[in-house]
Amino acid sequence: MAAMNMTKEEHSMLDGAQGEGVRRAMEIVVALGTIYGAQDLVPVSHVQVSGVSYKNLGDAGLEFLRDWAAQGARVRVPTTLNPAGMDLRHWRELGFPPDFAMQQQAVLDAFSAMCIETTCTCTPYLVSYVPRLGDHIAWGESSAISYANSALGARTNREGGPGALAAAITGRTARYGLHLDENRIPTHLVDVRCPIHSESDWGALGYIVGKRVANGVPYLRGLDPAACDVTSLKALGAAMAASGAVALYHVEGVTPEATNLLPPIWNFKGQEIVIVGLEEGYEALNTQSAVGTIDLVWIGCPHASLDEIESIAGRLVGRHVRSALWITAAHQVREEAESRGLVTRLESSGGRIVSDTCLVVAPVEALGFRSIATNSGKGAFYGPSHAHVAVRFGSLDQCLEAALTGEWEMTDERAGLGTVSESMS
């Protein structure tokens, strides 16, 4: 295998001239590049580091971060973090265990020592940095990767936690995978022939597509461009990244590369998939055992936008929930919601905006929740395995009704919506 082309500065990082922490980071970047056959490295403009919750890291992960920081590792490009395992400001009143909170704060202190901004969100594009078309970045959150590659046309692979952190410390990532034009061409043509209305419809669609294409690059047509807003596309991509490993998708007439950069799709030579209904997605994302009583209704996976919070607050005016209602969001979004009076309105109805965290990485077992309702395909997919909860998956209206009554209303509205057919062209 040919040696990777590296600049003089990159060699100095690898040789240890810029410190042990940088040398260690560059070794990781170069090792990944060598494994994947990269010819060189590419500068990145932003990094999103995953692996932030103490629930996932444990003591070994915490010591790993502390050791790296002690070696002088400091990031050289703007860097943000994935959700932590708790609300960093309101963890006590929400019932998070003090011993967990202490260790979680120690994790954040280690990241802070490396000059990383402790913005803990899976939607950095809503609060801190919006990549531009063609920007090279190194992001480690699957739903954010999908949104950046697809909706914005930026370029990032699915980075692991250490790999993303190494990219932040060196300001480089290896040029392979989705950083290359040839790997952004569609591998599957997905014809959507059923109506897509609610947020959960987008999640169910994403689940079905992700299961079919695995780590491929789907090109979706048949979707209404007017319905493809931020909320819809982040729900779609998050579910595809959860049920499969989709890091890039194209939507005809919507996403920048589908519109401007791809070869004509009628020359497509890959696999064709026709989706005529969403029943498969709804069935898979609802826990098989019957769940009636709902302990928690969870909205905001990926983290909710201000528009989503405002919509929920408007639907709850004059009403009060019986189940716990959590809307997870970045703390910057919560602060803006507070300035607009939305936090007060939600709390008067019994709801909460919970910042910095996500149920997938929180110590849910210690919080006492055993059953949840959500409109998130990603949240429903990971809820049973990561949070050990029974899940009901449905539209926002269904979820809010469950919050108000404490029970999941059984309906047959998703029944008979058809299946999926596949063909090779």
Describe what this molecule looks like in 3D.
It is a single chain. By secondary structure, the protein is an alpha/beta fold. It folds into three domains: 8-181, Aconitase, domain 3 (2-Layer Sandwich); 185-284 and 416-424, no CATH class; 286-405, Aconitase, domain 3 (2-Layer Sandwich). It contains 18 helices and 15 strands. It has helices at residues 8-15, 20-35, 54-70, 91-94, 98-113, 124-127, 142-152, 161-170, 199-213, 230-243, 256-260, 279-285, 306-315, 331-339, 342-348, 364-367, 377-387, 396-405; strands spanning 41-43, 47-49, 79-81, 138-139, 172-174, 188-192, 218-221, 250-251, 271-275, 296-299, 324-329, 351-355, 371-374, 390-393, 420-424. Strands 8-7-6-9-15 form a five-stranded mixed sheet. The protein has a five-stranded parallel sheet with strand order 12-11-10-13-14, with helices on both faces. Strands 3-2-4 form a three-stranded parallel sheet. Strand 7 (218-221), helix 10 (230-243) and strand 8 (250-251) form a beta-alpha-beta unit. Helix 3 (54-70) packs parallel to helix 5 and helix 13 (306-315) runs parallel beside helix 15 (342-348). It is globular and about 65 Å long. Residues 413-419 and 421-425 have low confidence and may be disordered.
Low-confidence stretches: 413-419, 421-425
Please name the CATH architecture of the largest domain.
Answer: 2-Layer Sandwich
At the fourth CATH level, what is the homologous superfamily of the largest domain?
A: Aconitase, domain 3
Q: Would you tell me the structural class of the helices and strands?
A: alpha/beta
- What does the largest sheet look like? 5 strands, mixed
> What's the overall geometry?
globular
The percent range for helix content is 40-55%
- Count the E strands: 15
What is the number of independent domains? Answer: 3
Number of helix segments? 18
**Broad CATH class of the largest domain:** Alpha Beta
The N- and C-terminal alpha carbons lie at a distance of 35 Å
